[in-house]
Amino acid sequence: MSYKPVITNVTKASSNDKEGLYEFIIKLADGTECRAFYHRFPEWRMTNISRLLKTPCPICRKDFICKCMEAFTGELEDQMIGDNWIEKTTAE
Predict the structure, then answer these.
(1) CA distance linking residue 49 with residue 35, whole number of Å
(2) Which top-rank group of organisms is this from (predicted)?
(3) Distance of alpha carbon 80 from alpha carbon 74, whole angstroms
(4) Does residue 59 belong to any structural domain of this protein?
(5) If we measure between CA atoms, which residue out of 17, 59, 87, 19 comes closest to residue 34?
(6) Is 1 part of a structural domain of the chain?
(7) Would you say residue 92 has pLDDT above 70?
(8) Residues 6+ apart with CB under 8 A from 19
(9) Rounded average pLDDT over 75-89
(10) Containing structural domain, residue 18
(11) Three-state secondary structure of the chain
């Protein structure tokens, strides 16, 4: 099975503007929610991602902590930057 995460919504959960640290809640098309941590300086980059335990993992189907979403960090980061999700949520 080939998994393709597609971001449908992003909300800013918290931030430390002085240090350039941000926490976003990412909602995916399949209903999965993830928490992503970003560092702003010198440019936006994802430092960590984890699945919120609201639904089972779409990859391994576990309903407890797993690290499956880390394998899709590149794809999710490309969507966050390419679709301007970061600018949309930090402009609020």
Answers:
(1) 6
(2) Bacteria
(3) 10
(4) yes
(5) 59
(6) no
(7) no
(8) none
(9) 94
(10) 7-90
(11) CCCCCCEEEEEEEEEECCCCEEEEEEEECCCCEEEEEEECCCCCEEEEEEECCCCCCCCCCCCCCCCHHHHHHHHHHHHHHHCCHHHHHHCC
Work out the end-to-end distance of the chain between its first and last CA atoms, rounded to an integer number of angstroms: 37
**Lookup: tokens for 83:** 């679709």
**CB count, 10 Å around CB of 12?**
16
- Angstrom distance (rounded) from CA 43 to CA 80: 13
Which two three-digit tokens encode residue 91?
């402009």
- As for how many domains the chain has, the answer is 1
- pLDDT at position 1 over 60: no
Residue that has been written with the tokens 């099975």 in this structure: 1
Q: Give residue-wise pLDDT tens across range 28-75.
A: 999 999 999 999 999 999 999 999 999 999 999 999 999 999 999 999
Residue 2 lies in a domain: no
